[in-house]
Amino acid sequence: MELPRTAPCVVVGGGIAGVALAAHLARLGMEGVVLLERESGLGEGATSRSAGGIRQQFADPDLVRAARATAALLATFAEETGVDPEFRAHGYLLVATEEARAVRLRAEAAAQRAAGLEVDHLDAGGVARRFPCLSVGDVAGANFCPTDGYLSPHGLVEGYRALARRHGAVVVLSREAVSLEVRGGRLRGVRTAAGVVEAPMAAVAAGADAGPLLAAAGVRVPLRPTMRRLWFTRPLPGLPRDLPLVLDLDRPFYFRPESGGALLSLAEVEEGGSAEPPSPGDGSLPDRLAERALNRCPLLGDARILRAWWGHRTLTPDDRPVLGESPEVPGLWLAVGFGGHGITHGPSLCLALAEEMALGAPRLLPLDPYRPGRPSLAAAPPPPGVI
Fold this sequence. Notes:
By secondary structure, the chain is an alpha/beta fold. The chain has helices at about 15-25, 60-75, 75-80, 100-115, 125-130, 155-165, 210-215, 285-295, 340-360, and strands spanning about 10, 35, 55, 90-95, 120, 140-145, 150, 170, 175-185, 185-190, 195-200, 200-205, 225-235, 245-250, 255-260, 260-265, 305-315, 320-325, 330-335. The protein has 2 domains: about 10-50 and about 155-225 and about 315-380, FAD/NAD(P)-binding domain; about 90-150 and about 225-310, D-Amino Acid Oxidase, Chain A, domain 2 (2-Layer Sandwich), CATH 3.30.9.10. The protein is built from 9 helices and 19 strands. The chain is globular, with a radius of gyration of 21 Å.
């Protein structure tokens, strides 16, 4: 695709946030939106390396609301876009092994039910009755939401790509945004190696790469890219295909069924780390992962690694994404810092952002909790934990 020279808006980043934002802007009547992606395909960065989870259980009520809005959008996604994202509503099971965490989970479940979300708080016996393949000897409590689940990130991206193109958006691949053009204190366009796209608005949704691009334009957002490693096993015939995503919170670990096997990860914040993908090696699970996997599900003792990969999760100090127009550079909009939950929160929050950009105000969800420049972004980041 030849690079357009002008556009009403340029969206930088072809992950789920960028593709969803471009699709929503186009659907709302902003004809000729340009979506720039440096890779040769959309969704090839963190989106393609995610676990594909749709999780509505958060302690933050604003994030619960955004996740529920995404779940509602998924109900009509295939009809609207023509692409089935293969959403499997098998649920999320959040497991606590420490009593203090179990008490917090019970309180969170009550608050989430009051907000309209179907969540059960279970004791160890309740977990064992629902999911007999799990070991529960150390379980102090757990929360289960049956309307959570997981989907195909590729299907979600392809659906939004189809929607964007149907409404006149221009998708330009293999074109990196080199810099943001700022003149007279305002955003004027986006520069690539092939030239500048002049535009009165641009939205940066570039994930882990957003920080340097924004900083060069004089916009500093406290984004902290961290690593997440995942392993995918060979088929495990005894593993139930309809298990939820099981997330241990106190000894961080999660797994879920995938293609007859399992997808597993140590659900920890991993600072830095090698850019090399983890190696399957001899097919054995890494020691710490194996210990936690066997502790929760003995069936995983037969797991042999087929593939392994890593991706970035871009964190913020208050664990909320940053959405809205930059206070420093009018015309420059941000959709960054989703903290590994871009698939859960990106569709709904980017629709609200598109409504503000195209219509003047968000309608689906309020965006005040996510504004750039909010005081909580200046706070010290929380200690490493579970995401």
